[in-house]
Amino acid sequence: MKILIAGRKGGSGKSTITMNLSVALAHDGLDVIIIDADRQSSSASWALERSTCQPDAPQVHCVEKHNNIASTIEDLDSRYELVLIDPAGRDSEEMRSAMVVSDVLLIPLRPSQLDLDTIPELLKIVQQSKIINPNLKVCAVLSLCPTNPVINEINESKEFLIEFPEIKLLDTIICDRKIYRDCVSDGLGVVESTLSSESIRKAKKEILDLKSEVLG
Questions:
Q1: Three-class secondary structure of residue 142 per DSSP
Q2: H/E element holding 51?
Q3: What are the two backbone dihedrals, phi and then psi, of residue 125, each rounded to the nearest 5 degrees?
Protein backbone atom coordinates (compact mmCIF):
# COMPACT_ATOMS: atom_id res chain seq x y z
CA MET A 1 0.00 0.00 0.00
CA LYS A 2 1.33 3.43 -0.97
CA ILE A 3 0.25 6.40 1.15
CA LEU A 4 1.17 9.91 0.02
CA ILE A 5 1.04 12.46 2.83
CA ALA A 6 1.07 15.79 1.06
CA GLY A 7 -0.40 19.25 0.49
CA ARG A 8 0.35 22.64 -0.98
CA LYS A 9 1.30 24.37 2.27
CA GLY A 10 4.11 23.77 4.71
CA GLY A 11 3.74 23.69 8.47
CA SER A 12 0.71 21.38 8.45
CA GLY A 13 2.29 18.60 10.52
CA LYS A 14 2.89 16.45 7.44
CA SER A 15 6.22 14.96 8.51
CA THR A 16 5.09 14.48 12.11
CA ILE A 17 2.09 12.50 10.89
CA THR A 18 4.34 10.46 8.56
CA MET A 19 6.70 9.54 11.38
CA ASN A 20 3.99 8.67 13.89
CA LEU A 21 1.91 6.73 11.40
CA SER A 22 4.96 4.71 10.35
CA VAL A 23 5.69 3.77 13.98
CA ALA A 24 2.10 2.72 14.64
CA LEU A 25 2.18 0.53 11.53
CA ALA A 26 5.57 -0.95 12.46
CA HIS A 27 4.17 -1.94 15.87
CA ASP A 28 1.53 -3.94 14.00
CA GLY A 29 4.38 -6.04 12.61
CA LEU A 30 4.23 -4.48 9.15
CA ASP A 31 7.32 -3.82 7.05
CA VAL A 32 7.28 -0.03 6.60
CA ILE A 33 9.43 2.37 4.61
CA ILE A 34 9.30 6.16 4.30
CA ILE A 35 10.36 7.94 1.14
CA ASP A 36 11.56 11.35 2.28
CA ALA A 37 11.10 13.49 -0.83
CA ASP A 38 11.42 16.81 1.02
CA ARG A 39 14.85 18.40 0.77
CA GLN A 40 14.53 19.53 4.39
CA SER A 41 14.99 15.82 5.24
CA SER A 42 12.89 15.88 8.43
CA SER A 43 11.72 12.27 8.15
CA ALA A 44 15.17 11.04 7.15
CA SER A 45 16.80 12.80 10.12
CA TRP A 46 14.20 11.32 12.46
CA ALA A 47 14.72 7.83 11.01
CA LEU A 48 18.48 8.12 11.50
CA GLU A 49 17.96 9.23 15.11
CA ARG A 50 15.61 6.27 15.62
CA SER A 51 18.03 3.71 14.23
CA THR A 52 20.86 5.16 16.34
CA CYS A 53 19.10 5.79 19.66
CA GLN A 54 16.23 3.28 19.58
CA PRO A 55 17.84 0.06 18.31
CA ASP A 56 15.26 -2.15 20.07
CA ALA A 57 12.24 -0.35 18.63
CA PRO A 58 10.40 -1.76 15.59
CA GLN A 59 12.35 -0.76 12.52
CA VAL A 60 11.13 1.96 10.17
CA HIS A 61 13.16 2.11 6.97
CA CYS A 62 13.71 5.41 5.17
CA VAL A 63 15.24 6.51 1.87
CA GLU A 64 15.64 9.96 0.37
CA LYS A 65 14.58 10.51 -3.23
CA HIS A 66 13.82 13.65 -5.24
CA ASN A 67 12.41 14.81 -8.59
CA ASN A 68 10.35 12.10 -10.32
CA ILE A 69 9.86 9.43 -7.65
CA ALA A 70 7.15 7.30 -9.29
CA SER A 71 9.43 4.39 -10.23
CA THR A 72 11.03 4.40 -6.75
CA ILE A 73 7.60 4.18 -5.12
CA GLU A 74 6.55 1.27 -7.30
CA ASP A 75 9.83 -0.56 -6.73
CA LEU A 76 9.59 -0.18 -2.94
CA ASP A 77 5.92 -1.16 -3.01
CA SER A 78 7.00 -4.54 -4.38
CA ARG A 79 9.34 -5.06 -1.42
CA TYR A 80 7.54 -3.45 1.55
CA GLU A 81 4.01 -3.78 2.89
CA LEU A 82 3.57 -0.03 3.47
CA VAL A 83 5.26 2.84 1.65
CA LEU A 84 4.74 6.32 3.12
CA ILE A 85 5.76 9.27 0.94
CA ASP A 86 6.68 12.61 2.53
CA PRO A 87 7.26 15.36 -0.09
CA ALA A 88 7.69 19.07 0.57
CA GLY A 89 4.64 21.08 1.59
CA ARG A 90 4.16 22.73 -1.80
CA ASP A 91 3.37 21.92 -5.40
CA SER A 92 6.39 19.93 -6.60
CA GLU A 93 7.55 17.28 -9.05
CA GLU A 94 7.86 14.90 -6.13
CA MET A 95 4.23 15.36 -5.08
CA ARG A 96 2.84 15.15 -8.62
CA SER A 97 4.85 12.07 -9.59
CA ALA A 98 3.85 10.34 -6.34
CA MET A 99 0.18 11.14 -6.87
CA VAL A 100 -0.03 9.13 -10.10
CA VAL A 101 1.08 5.87 -8.43
CA SER A 102 -0.18 6.14 -4.83
CA ASP A 103 -3.20 4.35 -3.40
CA VAL A 104 -4.09 7.04 -0.87
CA LEU A 105 -3.49 10.78 -0.71
CA LEU A 106 -3.70 12.01 2.88
CA ILE A 107 -3.85 15.81 3.14
CA PRO A 108 -2.98 17.26 6.57
CA LEU A 109 -4.65 20.65 7.05
CA ARG A 110 -4.32 23.15 9.84
CA PRO A 111 -7.73 24.61 10.75
CA SER A 112 -6.84 27.99 9.27
CA GLN A 113 -8.10 29.83 6.22
CA LEU A 114 -4.62 29.98 4.72
CA ASP A 115 -4.46 26.17 4.69
CA LEU A 116 -8.02 25.71 3.49
CA ASP A 117 -7.46 28.17 0.64
CA THR A 118 -4.94 25.73 -0.88
CA ILE A 119 -7.63 23.10 -1.50
CA PRO A 120 -9.07 24.31 -4.85
CA GLU A 121 -5.67 24.36 -6.59
CA LEU A 122 -4.68 21.06 -4.99
CA LEU A 123 -7.85 19.47 -6.32
CA LYS A 124 -6.92 20.56 -9.84
CA ILE A 125 -3.68 18.60 -9.47
CA VAL A 126 -5.59 15.62 -8.07
CA GLN A 127 -7.98 15.65 -11.02
CA GLN A 128 -5.06 15.65 -13.46
CA SER A 129 -3.45 12.76 -11.58
CA LYS A 130 -6.66 10.76 -11.65
CA ILE A 131 -6.53 10.65 -15.44
CA ILE A 132 -3.60 8.25 -14.92
CA ASN A 133 -4.52 6.96 -11.47
CA PRO A 134 -8.33 6.87 -11.27
CA ASN A 135 -8.34 4.72 -8.12
CA LEU A 136 -6.51 7.29 -5.98
CA LYS A 137 -8.39 7.76 -2.70
CA VAL A 138 -8.25 11.32 -1.36
CA CYS A 139 -8.77 12.15 2.31
CA ALA A 140 -7.87 14.97 4.67
CA VAL A 141 -7.11 15.19 8.36
CA LEU A 142 -7.29 18.32 10.47
CA SER A 143 -3.87 18.71 12.06
CA LEU A 144 -2.20 20.90 14.68
CA CYS A 145 -5.64 21.76 16.01
CA PRO A 146 -6.05 23.86 19.17
CA THR A 147 -6.89 21.87 22.30
CA ASN A 148 -8.97 24.74 23.69
CA PRO A 149 -12.62 23.74 23.06
CA VAL A 150 -13.71 27.38 23.05
CA ILE A 151 -11.89 27.99 19.76
CA ASN A 152 -14.26 27.24 16.89
CA GLU A 153 -11.71 26.79 14.09
CA ILE A 154 -12.29 23.03 13.80
CA ASN A 155 -16.03 23.34 13.17
CA GLU A 156 -15.47 26.20 10.74
CA SER A 157 -12.95 24.08 8.81
CA LYS A 158 -15.36 21.15 8.66
CA GLU A 159 -18.07 23.41 7.24
CA PHE A 160 -15.65 24.73 4.62
CA LEU A 161 -14.59 21.23 3.53
CA ILE A 162 -18.19 20.12 2.98
CA GLU A 163 -17.97 22.14 -0.24
CA PHE A 164 -15.40 19.65 -1.57
CA PRO A 165 -17.03 16.21 -1.72
CA GLU A 166 -14.02 14.86 -3.64
CA ILE A 167 -12.15 14.86 -0.34
CA LYS A 168 -13.14 12.56 2.50
CA LEU A 169 -12.58 14.42 5.76
CA LEU A 170 -11.50 11.89 8.38
CA ASP A 171 -13.12 11.86 11.81
CA THR A 172 -9.70 11.84 13.49
CA ILE A 173 -8.37 15.21 14.61
CA ILE A 174 -4.66 15.64 15.37
CA CYS A 175 -4.13 18.29 18.03
CA ASP A 176 -1.13 20.51 18.65
CA ARG A 177 0.55 18.67 21.53
CA LYS A 178 4.07 19.04 22.89
CA ILE A 179 4.47 15.26 23.19
CA TYR A 180 4.65 14.96 19.39
CA ARG A 181 7.67 17.26 19.29
CA ASP A 182 9.30 15.56 22.26
CA CYS A 183 8.99 12.09 20.74
CA VAL A 184 10.28 13.16 17.33
CA SER A 185 13.46 14.54 18.89
CA ASP A 186 14.12 11.09 20.43
CA GLY A 187 13.39 9.10 17.28
CA LEU A 188 10.12 7.81 18.72
CA GLY A 189 6.44 7.88 17.90
CA VAL A 190 3.89 8.95 20.48
CA VAL A 191 2.52 5.40 20.72
CA GLU A 192 5.91 4.44 22.20
CA SER A 193 5.94 7.09 24.94
CA THR A 194 6.26 5.62 28.43
CA LEU A 195 5.13 8.84 30.07
CA SER A 196 1.68 9.01 31.59
CA SER A 197 -0.67 11.96 31.19
CA GLU A 198 -4.07 12.70 29.72
CA SER A 199 -2.46 14.60 26.83
CA ILE A 200 -0.22 11.65 25.95
CA ARG A 201 -3.13 9.22 26.14
CA LYS A 202 -5.10 11.43 23.75
CA ALA A 203 -2.13 11.76 21.37
CA LYS A 204 -1.74 7.98 21.20
CA LYS A 205 -5.44 7.60 20.45
CA GLU A 206 -5.22 10.22 17.70
CA ILE A 207 -2.51 8.30 15.86
CA LEU A 208 -4.15 4.90 16.31
CA ASP A 209 -7.48 6.29 15.12
CA LEU A 210 -5.76 7.87 12.11
CA LYS A 211 -4.09 4.56 11.26
CA SER A 212 -7.41 2.74 11.39
CA GLU A 213 -9.15 5.31 9.19
CA VAL A 214 -6.41 5.50 6.58
CA LEU A 215 -6.02 1.74 6.27
CA GLY A 216 -9.78 1.27 6.36
A1: strand
A2: helix 42-53
A3: -65, -40
CATH of the domain at 176: 3.40.50.300
pLDDT number for residue 148: 83
User: Which pLDDT belongs to residue 129?
Assistant: 97
3-state class of 165 per DSSP?
A: coil
Distance CA(154)–CA(152), nearest Å, equals 6
State the Cα–Cα distance between residues 83 and 35, nearest whole angstrom.
7
| Verdict on whether the full-model pTM lies above 0.90 | yes
Task: Please give the span between the terminal C-alpha atoms of the chain, in angstroms, as a whole number.
Answer: 12
* CA gap 187, 51 in Å, rounded: 8
Which residues form the domain of 176?
Answer: 2-215
Residue 41 has pLDDT above 80, yes or no: yes
| Cα of 131 vs its chain's centroid, Å | 24
Nearest partner of 175 among 204, 150, 133, judged by Cα: 204
As a whole number of angstroms, the distance between CA 20 and CA 143 comes to 13
d(CA 41, CA 177): 22
What total number of domains does the chain contain? 1
Residue 11, by phi and psi: left (phi above 0), alpha (psi -120 to 50) or beta? left
pLDDT of residue 150: 64
For the stretch 148-173, pLDDT in tens is 876 789 999 999 999 999 999 999 99
